[in-house]
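Lab notebook, bench 4. We co-purified these components, and the gel suggests they stay together. Before we commit to crystallization screens, I want a quick structural picture of the whole thing.
Request: model the full complex, all chains together.
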Amino acid sequence: MSAVMHASAVTPAACAPGTPLYGEVTEFLYREADLLDSGRFGDWFELFAEDIRYDMPVRTNQFRAAGEGFQEVAFFDDNYASLKTRVKRLETEFAWAETPPSRTRHYVTNLLLAPGGRADELAVRVNFMITRTRADRGHQMFTGRREDTLRRVSGGQLKIARRLILGDQTVITNSNLSILF
Amino acid sequence: MPAATTLSEAGGAGGAPFTQLANGENLAEIVRPEEGLISRRIFADPEIYAMELERIFGRGWFFLGHDSEIPNPGDAITRPCGVDPAILLRDDDGVVRAFLNSCRHRGMRLCRTDRENVRFLRCPYHGWSYRTNGELLAASSENHYGEGELDKSELGLIPVARLESYRGLYFATWDKNATPLDAWLGDMRWYMDIIFGRTGEIEFVGVPQVWDVDCSWKFATDNFTDNFHVFWAHQSLVQLGLLPNFPDFASHGHMVTAGNGHILHFVQGPPNDEIYMGLGLPKALWPRFEQNLKPPQAEIAMRHGYSAGTMWPNFHWLQLTSAGDMESKPVGILNLRLEYPLSPTRTRMYSWFAIDKAASPEFRKISYETYVRTFGPGGIFDQDDMENWEECTAAAIGPAAKRHTLHHKMGIGRKPDPKWPGPGIGYSDSYGEMTQRAWYGEWLRWMSKPLGSIGRAANGGARR
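Here is the predicted assembly.
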């Protein structure tokens, strides 16, 4: 089916758990996580659209009235070229923060799917929990919410057009952010 | 820790027993900066850490925040002062003040957000409330206190002993006898003028990134004055073409010891490449150097692409010219850093992005994006450094390692460059460990001096 036909068919009802679309997006997210946990970063990068913005704002500790505490300053603020640079860096064997590599496990849950801002896009909200173990050290954990935009491109496959990573920690207690989210 | 009054005022380098350790060793014997020999014992040892808390963090000058972070009356941010939690705020009258972030009653943390605008500071425990100038406005259940049991005039917030600023940077100390900030910074101010005043004023943008690393705070400080790690520690970026592919690329410059442990370097980029001139700032800003700086300062700003400086012990600038990805051109970024220990083997890092107020919106954006892609915990430069600090620390814990030294001898026989135009002592060739040796020399001086006797004005020209 054509991308536009498929996209124009998306209604809130078509996004509900149990629908084919919900199942397709779930599998997409699971396969994406598997690429990361298998260290197939180049294949992972192929999932992104060229106008990707991949960002993770700094969070501050605030009273409820001040909102969630996310700031304009970020931990990540990547475009296609800089995300590609991250991936290429991890492939050099000299990226010491990940050489030898960490072991990661990306858990993606609580999927909420909705029609996106464009006819060919879907709004995807998930919770994530990522564990990292490195060398002889114990588990580190990263948790939060992710807000993705998935876009149906020609050929029918999905691409990640936007990834907003909303972490729970105001102080990153895990040495660095050398893994991918 | 005994009270200051019981300590010998005759202590100094080698002033046993003040520097005597429980195992019989003396700090002045195992830390010999003038020989480039630093014992591994000092990095992860709980006994030495306890000494550092009192002798360095209890009485040094520490960066708290920048004027631009608290623009309005009532603006408050929470920061460490040394290792103690502090509040930096602008009071109702516009006066900047700093207090221990702790209620006078039961010691509860008062300001419990990272930043907010406050009318009063009210303790969540019993409701004691303070004015922004620190005065106790109201306690709780005041009618149950008898005559003389609650003297509110004596129960204001605990202020830092001194709060002073230079070029919008607020520093504070818990030592009322501390050398005044201007004298403590001494010759370093001449170099701070270049970094913080080259085009007018500097602005800290937004909030810092904050993260914890399992390392000794001293491996972080050591790294910020180290140029020759860049080629190898950041080799991944050499491979990708973000750094020049020859080992000496960051050696064309000067190392400077500016007195009181303050250290810095200025490094040139590839010759005749305008991108690396003027500290990586846009050409449109270069004429401002001469308007804001003395001629030799302006020339230093003009000729260099990189600089790092440490205002002893733990506040740093990093002025770098770098690309943020494989397809972009290098641009100048200004990064400020602070690190302080949570334990002998755990360190909290702060990293700020700052920008010249005179910069265009376009430059501000590209400089910020380049910063966030390269520095901070997610930065493709920075993250590899933390791996080194953690593994250096892990290897410094055991008894066998503690019997050995690290090696800091590079350039130990190098003569100062008499032509260096700035104050302090300049050495040509920006690969060298004279700055680390000066830093550890100051560390030993603070660790060796009895409490209350550390004050001294900087005189960079008289010390190596």
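Chain A touches chain B through 39 residues (CB under 8 Å). Worth comparing against the SEC data before the next meeting. The first helix of chain A runs from residue 3 to 8.
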